[in-house]
Design goal:
Layout: E1 4-7, H1 14-22, E2 26-29, H2 31-49, H3 75-86, E3 90-93, H4 96-110, H5 119-130, E4 134-135, E5 138-140, H6 149-156, E6 164-167, E7 170-173, H7 174-181, H8 192-197, H9 201-231, H10 241-245, H11 250-262, H12 267-270, H13 280-283, H14 285-306, E8 315-317, E9 322-324, H15 332-359, H16 381-397, H17 419-449, H18 458-468, H19 481-493
Parallel strand pairs: 1-2
Antiparallel strand pairs: 3-5, 4-6, 6-7, 8-9
């Protein structure tokens, strides 16, 4: 039996989004959502019967063409023209998982009954989602202000029997696939095209996908950092709770607590130390990892509000008899947050690479470059180079998109968020962080094996033992890129369960 998620006004959480996408839930509208959608559409149809004053995007053109009035006979054509003309996405294909989130969030957005769409339109988007008919969308083209116009237009083309879709591992004309399902093209009614295209679902879906990755990666960063700390013969005192309670930062307190739990029972961490202090990349893990956690928590709040919001324009309020043209499509809250998220993830990678560097430096009884015969063997010299190169690229990608703006639509849209660009580069940073952490684990597991027969904690030993099923100890020089790839795959597939949602 299919698992079903009912679209409603109840708050959609990231846990639910993750469950819907990862466990292949089907979507259905709740009775309340059906009522809200139909009520808004009925109100708008009735209002249009006697409407004499212009309503932006309903009886007028779009953007700077808002002064051009449209006849009643052309209102449907206006909406179709809008979708076709605005489908200007270019660049790389948006990943299919993100397209699924885009459909989910757009359906959620229109279920509140403020968008004026037809019930049949929303249901067709649900049909796309439930049957894995995923519109082809491109990752370039959004200014992140008048809504994510270009990518959302590409997302909506198949409603009209236009564009292309991903289906059963192929990219095919939407018209062909729709015909196979017996789906006739939707005839858009007044305002509908604008409701479909205005909104933040492109940047918001990227942000949601990246945020779910960030939850995983910040937890893995703690786990891998704990392996490195023990392998480096680090001290546990900087992780004592007293230190962090007097500074109050929640992320810092949580990080230190995790490390104490991860390392509980370790012979390495508890043995007498010759050194008084560790380098910052070890000693300040709670402060650095904790700050990133706090940043991720802030982004979680902002994105959590956005995925449950109405962000199209104009917005319809049937009970108040109002159709208001405003700016809920503007992506500034997301643009700033996604830039912040990228920086938070980049810093987890920055400090990770520094720990890798310390592990190969021939300090504290570890051999140079973590190989038994350095000189004849280069060992782990160059994996650190690779990590450093990726860290540098992340720093470049962290140039904020949200401080940029380019005037568009003949000056009518004179401030834009560039949230779409902030979103797509945040994904690149997340993917890079995964690679950096994989390289640190590659080094840390190697270093820990040089400490035998002294053992780490049960938690660390079990984690490294699982890793060793995929990546072996390096005795002498070998081709290393394949080992790094195995390490990356291990992190991608390592099951953390609900731990990623720990607060």
């Amino acid at each position: 039996m299919d698992k079903i998620h009912y679209i409603s006004t109840e708050t959609l959480t990231f846990e639910e989004v993750n469950r819907i996408i990862s466990e292949n839930y089907k979507l259905a509208l709740s009775e309340d959502a059906i009522r809200r959608i139909q009520k808004c559409r009925d109100y708008l149809d009735k209002k249009m019967e006697n409407q004499s004053t212009p309503i932006y995007g309903v009886t007028t053109g779009f953007g700077s063409l808002c002064d051009h009035n449209i006849s009643k006979e052309d209102l449907s054509k206006l909406q179709k023209n809008l979708v076709m003309s605005h489908a200007c996405g270019t660049g790389d294909y948006v990943p299919e998982e993100i397209i699924r989130i885009m459909l989910l969030l757009k359906i959620q957005n229109m279920s509140y009954g403020n968008s004026g769409v037809q019930l049949v339109t929303v249901q067709r988007l649900i049909d796309f989602f439930n049957n894995d008919v995923l519109p082809v969308v491109y990752d370039l083209g959004s200014l992140g202000a008048s809504g994510d116009l270009a990518p959302l237009a590409n997302l909506m083309l198949p409603l009209l029997g236009l564009g292309e879709v991903h289906y059963k591992g192929q990219i095919r004309p939407a018209a062909e696939v729709c015909k196979e399902f017996g789906w006739e093209p939707i005839t858009l009614q007044s305002k509908e095209g604008l409701a479909l295209l205005n909104g933040t679902q492109f940047m918001c879906s990227y942000g949601t996908y990246v945020l779910l990755k960030a939850f995983r990666l910040q937890y893995l960063a703690d786990m891998i950092g704990a392996v490195s700390l023990d392998a480096f013969d680090g001290r546990i005192e900087p992780f004592y709770d007293q230190i962090h309670q007097i500074r109050h930062h929640r992320g810092q307190i949580l990080t230190a607590e995790r490390y104490r739990n991860f390392l509980k029972g370790s012979e390495m961490i508890s043995r007498e130390k010759k050194h008084v202090q560790d380098p910052y990349s070890f000693r300040c893990i709670p402060q650095v990892h904790g700050a990133s956690k706090d940043a991720i928590a802030y982004v979680t709040q902002i994105l959590g509000e956005e995925i449950n919001a109405v962000t199209d324009n104009p917005t319809v309020f049937p009970d108040e008899d109002l159709v208001i043209s405003a700016g809920n499509f503007h992506g500034q809250p997301l643009a700033l947050s996604l830039d912040f998220l990228a920086i938070a993830m980049a810093e987890l990678g920055n400090i990770s690479e520094r720990r890798t560097y310390q592990l190969i430096a021939g300090k504290r009884g570890l051999p140079s470059f973590l190989v038994a015969e350095p000189g004849l063997n280069s060992g782990f010299m160059i994996p650190q180079y690779a990590a450093a190169a990726i860290v540098s690229q992340n720093k470049q990608l962290c140039t904020p998109a949200s401080v940029d703006s380019i005037e568009s639509s003949q000056g009518q849209e004179d401030h834009v968020s560039m949230g779409g660009n902030a979103a797509t580069k945040a994904l690149r940073v997340a993917n890079n962080l995964e690679r950096i952490l994989a390289i640190e684990l590659f080094n840390a597991a190697q270093a820990l094996d040089f400490r035998r027969p002294i053992k780490s904690s049960d938690f660390i030993e079990n984690f490294v033992a699982e890793y060793r099923k995929h990546v072996e100890f390096v005795k002498v020089d070998k081709v290393m890129y394949t080992e790094i790839a195995k390490s990356v795959d291990f992190l991608k597939n390592y099951n953390l369960g609900d731990k990623i949602f720990e607060k």
